[in-house]
Specification:
Strand order of the largest sheet of chain A: 1-3-2
Structural class of chain B: alpha+beta
Strand content of chain B: 15-25%
Strand content of chain A: 5-15%
Largest sheet of chain A: 3 strands, antiparallel
Radius of gyration of chain B: 22 Å
Helix content of chain B: 40-55%
Radius of gyration of chain A: 16 Å
Order of helices and strands of chain B: EHEEEHEEHH
Structural class of chain A: mainly alpha
Distance between the termini of chain B: 49 Å
Oligomer: heterodimer
Shape of chain A: elongated
Distance between the termini of chain A: 37 Å
Number of helices of chain B: 4
Helix content of chain A: 55-70%
Chain lengths: 108, 199
């Protein structure tokens, strides 16, 4: 696959996409991201709203019908899942070779 | 009791600072039109400002709810007012933007709005003054036969007169002309700041 110019994803984007593997509305996404990141990524409302707009534009997420008529609910798209997986594979590789290098160092 | 204050802020931080100083004194912003209106408020808190406008009322409601869910009550602003004022009584919540990029995005939206506003105002002003909606910039250069000159002579004369032409432009259009130029400058500054941060 050709090297994707959209990578690397920012940490915030990564966590939002991860959270939206399950449909949710704005505030729930904010809570999910905080929980998934162990409290390291805390998004404020203004930032969340902007992030949702950007991800909609990139077509990584989409709005779906919801029971709550006043709050918009979003979910990840296939394209979003694809980019998430690509970033994940990148991270996996980085972890692997880092471990190899650091372990190699330790054993000397 | 309602307090009414007439102030003009271009700098957002200064506006926020002033609104929070009023809040410290016990007055919370209740309406903003041309002037700022305040009501008595005994609860301490923090006011922050966002800039966003909406075409549909339900988009606006969804936006307000996202803030409300996270503790920020929408106190002043409408679907198309652009400026949106939020209030939070929770001491530990101090920002509505958790990263610089989204803050810059807000400033960019705001700058873009001012460009559109001042261009429209200038067009209306030109129409009212000259009877047509656009006057050629050439009209502000008074050097006789400037436009029939060529080469180095032309550029020398042109650049020499440009500051004068510019000031004539500003005197004709007065406040809106200056605002338009400044608004465009501010917009490009905001756009570049956003671009640089959007790595």
């Amino acid at each position: 696959m050709a090297r994707n110019k959209k990578l690397p994803l920012t940490e915030t984007t990564y966590y939002v996409l991860l959270a939206l593997l399950k449909p949710a509305h704005g505030y729930v996404i904010m809570q999910e991201v905080e929980e998934l990141s162990n409290g390291t990524v805390k998004m404020a409302a203004g930032t969340m709203y902007g992030a949702i707009e950007n991800l909609l534009k990139l077509k990584y997420i989409k709005q779906i019908d919801s029971e709550d008529s006043r709050r918009k609910v979003y979910t990840i798209t296939d394209e979003g899942k694809s980019i998430l997986k690509q970033q994940f594979e990148r991270y996996e590789h980085m972890i692997q070779i880092t471990k190899a290098r650091l372990d190699g160092d330790d054993s000397e | 009791m309602i307090v009414n204050k007439l102030k003009l802020f271009y700098n957002l931080k200064k506006e926020e600072k002033w609104l929070n100083e009023m809040l410290e004194e016990g007055y919370i912003l209740s309406k903003k039109g041309v002037s700022y209106k305040f009501e008595k408020c005994i609860t301490k808190g923090l006011i922050r400002v966002d800039f966003r406008s909406f075409s549909k009322q339900k988009d606006f409601v969804d936006y307000q709810l996202m803030f409300e869910d996270s503790g920020w009550k929408h106190i002043v602003g409408s679907k198309s007012s652009g400026t949106q004022y939020f209030y939070n009584t929770n001491e530990s919540d101090t920002e509505i933007f958790s990263d610089e990029l989204s803050q810059l995005g807000m400033l960019k939206r705001r700058a873009r709005y001012w460009v559109i506003f001042s261009i429209i105002a200038s067009i209306l002003l030109t129409q009212a003054t000259f009877g047509q909606i656009f006057v050629m910039p050439k009209a502000f250069y008074l050097t006789p036969d400037l436009w029939s000159m060529t080469g180095k002579m032309f550029w020398l004369a042109f650049w020499f007169e440009t500051p004068f032409a510019l000031s004539r432009f500003m005197m004709t259009y007065g406040i809106f002309g200056t605002l338009s130029i400044y608004a465009l400058y501010a917009y490009y500054k905001a756009k570049n700041a956003y671009k640089k941060n959007n790595i």
